Amino acid sequence: MAFSWQAVLACRKYLIVILVPLVFLPLPLVLPTKEALCGYVIIVMAIFWCTEALPLAVTALLPVLLFPLMNIMDSTTVCQEYLKDTNMLFLGGLVMAIAIETWNLHKRVALRVLLITGVRPALLLMGFMVVTAFLSMWISNTATTAMMVPIAQAVMEQLHKSEAESGTTGQVSEHTNKAFELQEKSPDSSKEPEEKGNSHVVVIEEEKKRKEELEKKHLKLSKGMSLCICYSSSIGGIATLTGTTPNLVLQGQVNDIFPNNGGIINFASWFSFAFPTMLVLLILAWIWLQILYLGFNFKKNFGCGVSPAAKAKEKQAYEIIKEESKKLGKMSFAEIEVLILFVLLVVLWFTREPGFIPGWATVLFNKDNTSYVTDATVALFISILLFILPSGFSNQDREQEQTGGRAKFRAPPPLLDWKVVQEKMPWNIVFLLGGGFALAKGSEESGLSAWLGTKLTPLQSIPHPAIVFLLCLLIATFTECTSNVATTTLFLPILASMAEAICLNPLYVMLPCTLSASLAFMLPVATPPNAIVFSYGQLRVIDMAKAGFVLNILGVLTITLAINTWASSLFQLQTFPSWANRTGTCL
Length: 587
What we know:
Elements: H1 2-10, H2 12-23, H3 26-30, H4 34-51, H5 56-60, H6 62-69, H7 75-80, H8 85-102, H9 105-117, H10 121-136, H11 141-185, H12 192-237, H13 245-257, H14 267-294, H15 298-301, H16 308-327, H17 333-352, H18 360-364, H19 375-388, E1 399-403, E2 406-408, H20 418-424, H21 427-446, H22 448-455, H23 464-478, H24 484-501, H25 506-516, H26 528-534, H27 541-564, H28 566-570
Antiparallel strand pairs: 1-2
Helix pairs in contact: 2-4, 4-21, 6-21, 8-13, 8-19, 9-10, 9-16, 10-11, 10-12, 10-14, 11-12, 11-16, 11-26, 12-14, 12-26, 13-21, 13-24, 13-25, 14-27, 17-19, 21-24, 22-24, 23-25, 23-27, 24-25, 25-27
């Protein structure tokens, strides 16, 4: 019996792939409508995505196979959904991120900020959170976490070592003084051996107790430091459109479902909404982790009135960061080039269509109310420059070996070559994004979106903020055990249909639910950053669950606050826009 269960568990992925399509097969057989056929594809894909029975990208390719066979969409139309403007923005943003990683620019920024914040417990926590959040706005959350955790570990080890050494020195001097006092005050020499023996036992016990307390304190601080890195990498990603994939899924779905929206979701508008939300959530996470792992003694946490020994210990840990920074040396020509290109990319993104004034794209390129230039155009322009610009000067790249009495000349390599991009680019996400767009288009073409909308009209009686709060809780729970990209891909088309049916601005539910998909704080398997910090062995699942549960609640409350305050005025969420009124039922 035990063996049979073991065999079932071992082969569960094969069983899911075979049984799930067969179990739900009666749905299209009993109701041979386009809506039912599309619903069947979505159910099968949702289960495959949740269980990861097939790789996520492979599941995302199912619409290319099933939609033409079921006469929902022809193959050419389906395939066109897999490489849209949003995918190109994703590729362009990642090429820039790869260049930053290749030339170690992210590490230089991280160490420089840590040198500014210092190593006092609360400020150290804040320093790591600020750096990690900032970096994950521009490069992948996984890469940010993988780089920051070893730096944090090195600083923590040095703090622990310094504390142990200073404690041992203190103990030795203390017991030397006690022995001296004992020798001075003892009138009875016959009691000396007995007192010395007792004193030795007390010293050993005290030393053992002190070491245990020190280890406990070190472990607690290490847990807090590990969690602050993985949490802030997830939080930081929500601030920019290219920071995490669900944001791009939203942009793609809005453009796909509501083609006449006038590019309402772009880099500048997203940043205006998401950056303040990220800041509030980051501060709340910092306060919560401080309370949980450093205690309520804020005076001690900020290093106010510390002893000289503690100051010496902090100085040693500070020297570790300083030494790491020195190892990088001066900024190379290539690093300066990448930094200039990165700043140029961000400036061009912000000024393309800022909203309050005409942007450079509107003035120079866009005609007849048509946006010819998008954020993807900018991203690809900078990406191509990375393959063109040299990484140094020719005299630095000459080979010293002599060939026919002359030095062999070699042209400097470009800032980036395709081989590096090929290795580091997560191509599976491109297919995953495409699969989501294909599903959204299939739902619209088959009429499933309209059918769902009519069934969700009773929600009109529920207050809108309550709808948002409940949906955010649902998405935040769902994303703990499912990929955040798969979560947004599945839910956003349904939410768009629901909003249209109850005459609610679609962005009022789609924006908060997209952010909630990044609130994966409770489980190691929820997101790669969580898995990375968990692999270091200091955290237990219960530690992450305890810290993450409260942070999930804080995240949902922050997002609900954001959508009902600054986002409401920014996107005019209190009105139902004409571009969303496709059926003409909402006046």
